Amino acid sequence: MTGTLQASSGAPYARILGVGGYRPRRVVDNAEICTMIDSTDEWIRTRSGIVERRWAAPDETVAMMAGEAARKAIQRSGVEAGQIDCVIVSTVSHLHQTPAVAPLIAYDVGAASAAAFDISAACAGFCYATAMADAMIRSGAATYVLAIGVERLSDLTDRSDRGTAFIFADGAGAAVIGPSDVPAIGPVVWGSDGEKAPTIYQTQGWDEVVGPHGEAREGEPRFPTLRMAGRDVFKWASYTVAEKAREALQRSGIAPEELDAFIPHQANDRITTAMTRTLGLPDDVVVGRDIVHQGNTSAASIPLAIEALYEEGAVRSGQTALIIGFGAGLVYAGQVVVLP
Ligand SMILES: CC(C)(COP(=O)(O)OP(=O)(O)OC[C@H]1O[C@@H](n2cnc3c(N)ncnc32)[C@H](O)[C@@H]1OP(=O)(O)O)[C@@H](O)C(=O)NCCC(=O)NCCS
């Protein structure tokens, strides 16, 4: 071999340039949930913080919701759709193994030739995608990345299950991430704990519903749904993940009193409160509590919560926010970002 192989090199840093969300039209309040499970509005509010959530209609597909959120994010970013050269979609509720939904969304929003793929990192998905986008932009593998979290968890929720029926919801959130001259996405702290996989799981594989060659299965095959050992997940998130959030903050070099906002995955408002306490955040740090009106939308929850804080006028461009996602796997990822 004689030639010298060239390696790519990219921008010095990356930053989030624009965020957008899509919230399904139909609002489902706790009273409606209580027609499906033995519960009360008061129990749901005090145990989870949730007052209402949104469930998608048939036309509000994973691709449709993601496309709407992405168009908003692109418009706010000031980037032309055609400049986007990579689309990462985090979802666990696109019910087709292949093709991935990302190429469809890339085509839909006008980034038709972008590299496009799905990732499966459950409720940590948006932070996983942000970490990947940051690394790709700095390595030169991409210049503008569209990172999307989108879920139709209502399709995977057993409406008679007391442990999950009131929590899971639908929606999409997107961010355009591009080059920056100054640091605007801090070091990611991420990891997994597969030993705890059974704490959030799908009741059965698709091959247990119907055989790979269409053969019927014994018994009464049911559409798979999600189950959760709520108390175990609650403890893991409130202690272990809260420590990871602290590590992400420390590694960013931002002190708790310098942070402007804390926007964790919207899993349960009590988890958010426990994390805020562990982090020792001053009272004037803005805390994302979009779960109250949105439920737990998994990979979509962080960008949706960011968008909600802008709409409330609670945050503004240039402020710092600690984001952290955590969920089925178990997996987690967190980093400090400068808000677009
Ligand atoms: C699901 C969750 C709200 C349940 O709250 P909890 O305080 O742990 O509740 P428990 O399951 O321990 O049950 C406590 C009591 O409430 C009852 N209960 C459970 N579900 C109920 C419901 N939907 N409505 C009313 N009562 C309910 C239980 O029967 C139990 O009653 P008992 O004390 O008489 O035995 C909570 O565990 C949670 O949010 N966990 C984390 C979930 C999460 O973040 N998931 C996403 C991660 S990505």
From TrEMBL:
Pfam families (UniProt xref): ACP_syn_III, ACP_syn_III_C
GO biological process: fatty acid biosynthetic process; secondary metabolite biosynthetic process
EC number(s) on file: 2.3.1.180
Main enzyme class: transferase
Pathway listed: Lipid metabolism; fatty acid biosynthesis
Beta-ketoacyl-[acyl-carrier-protein] synthase III N-terminal domain residues: 117-194
Segments for region (ACP-binding): 266-270
Beta-ketoacyl-[acyl-carrier-protein] synthase III C-terminal domain mapped to chain residues: 249-337
Keyword Ligase: no
Active-site residue numbers: 123, 265, 296
GO cellular component terms given for this protein: cytoplasm
Keyword field: Acyltransferase, Cytoplasm, Fatty acid biosynthesis, Fatty acid metabolism, Lipid biosynthesis, Lipid metabolism, Multifunctional enzyme, Transferase
GO molecular function, one term: 3-oxoacyl-[acyl-carrier-protein] synthase activity
Subunit structure: Homodimer.
Record note on domains: The last Arg residue of the ACP-binding site is essential for the weak association between ACP/AcpP and FabH.
Family membership noted in the UniProt record: Belongs to the thiolase-like superfamily. FabH family.
Role, per record: Catalyzes the condensation reaction of fatty acid synthesis by the addition to an acyl acceptor of two carbons from malonyl-ACP. Catalyzes the first condensation reaction which initiates fatty acid synthesis and may therefore play a role in governing the total rate of fatty acid production. Possesses both acetoacetyl-ACP synthase and acetyl transacylase activities. Its substrate specificity determines the biosynthesis of branched-chain and/or straight-chain of fatty acids.
Identification of the protein by name: Beta-ketoacyl-[acyl-carrier-protein] synthase III
Organism, as annotated: Auraticoccus cholistanensis
Lineage: Bacteria, Bacillati, Actinomycetota, Actinomycetes, Propionibacteriales
